């Protein structure tokens, strides 16, 4: 039994609803973190006009659902942190259990192996074979851990490339969106101001919450940078809410 027929409306409508709900969740999340409605309104407006959100919400893409669930989880998590709510903690655990089961199951592990950074053709040929015998200092400076580490560091930093964020990040989507970043270029001043306020002021009064936001900001591109594609727009969803 299905509630919505498999049709254009049936496929697009749920994503459209989730996209709208995501904007509302962003407002609630930012208000929860900063205790200021104005920042929530600014953040939700930024997401509403975001090229990333506009692009992926036009068709049935799992990135929209992924962002929505990430934000729901973050909202509940920060409620737990600020209020020590056992109810919120219970809801978060219930949400995380199926995801953990899926990620650690056979399908999840197989998928992870397929897209892991070591399978990227730009690095795989540089890795030493298991039976290759390295001599002397080569064991210290020319081993697979060092090679992969250097390659990953470049990938991670590429996700902070202003060109990717503001000018051409959407070029790498399947259909392409030339000359458009994940954010609009006119948002650069707001981005810089936001980073400054986060790191150098007490705009977020709770120091524990502030440290967690900074941690989220730095951790955001980690998963995407460990995959076998560079500057992948849809995999940037864990970073999108922070700026």
TrEMBL record:
* Pfam families, A to Z: PMT_2
Chain segments annotated as transmembrane? 12-30, 59-78, 85-104, 181-200, 212-228
Domain Glycosyltransferase RgtA/B/C/D-like residue range list: 7-100
Query: What keywords are assigned to this protein?
Result: Membrane, Transmembrane, Transmembrane helix
InterPro entries the record matches:
RgtA/B/C-like
Judging by the UniProt lineage, the source's domain of life is Bacteria
Q: What name goes with this protein? A: Glycosyltransferase RgtA/B/C/D-like domain-containing protein
Organism per entry:
Candidatus Shapirobacteria bacterium CG08_land_8_20_14_0_20_39_18
């Amino acid at each position: 039994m299905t509630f919505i027929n498999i049709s254009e409306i049936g496929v697009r409508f749920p994503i459209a609803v989730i996209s709208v709900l995501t904007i509302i969740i962003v407002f609630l999340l930012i208000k929860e973190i900063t205790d200021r409605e104005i920042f929530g309104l600014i953040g939700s407006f930024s997401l509403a006009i975001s090229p990333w959100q506009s692009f992926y919400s036009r068709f049935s893409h799992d990135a929209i659902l992924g962002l929505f669930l990430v934000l729901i989880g973050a909202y509940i998590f920060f409620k737990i942190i600020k209020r020590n709510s056992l109810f919120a903690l219970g809801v978060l655990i219930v949400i995380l259990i199926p995801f953990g089961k899926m990620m650690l199951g056979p399908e999840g592990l197989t998928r992870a192996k397929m897209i892991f950074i070591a399978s990227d053709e730009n690095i795989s040929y540089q890795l030493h074979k298991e039976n290759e015998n390295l001599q002397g200092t080569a064991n210290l400076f020319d081993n697979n851990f060092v090679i992969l580490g250097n390659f990953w560091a470049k990938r991670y930093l590429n996700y902070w490339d202003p060109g990717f964020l503001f000018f051409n990040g959407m070029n790498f989507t399947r259909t392409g969106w030339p000359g458009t970043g994940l954010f609009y270029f006119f948002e650069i001043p707001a981005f810089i101001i936001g980073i400054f306020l986060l790191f150098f002021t007490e705009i977020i009064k709770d120091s524990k919450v502030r440290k967690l936001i900074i941690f989220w900001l730095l951790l955001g591109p980690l998963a995407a940078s460990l995959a076998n594609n560079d500057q992948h727009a849809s995999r940037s969803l864990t970073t999108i809410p922070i700026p």
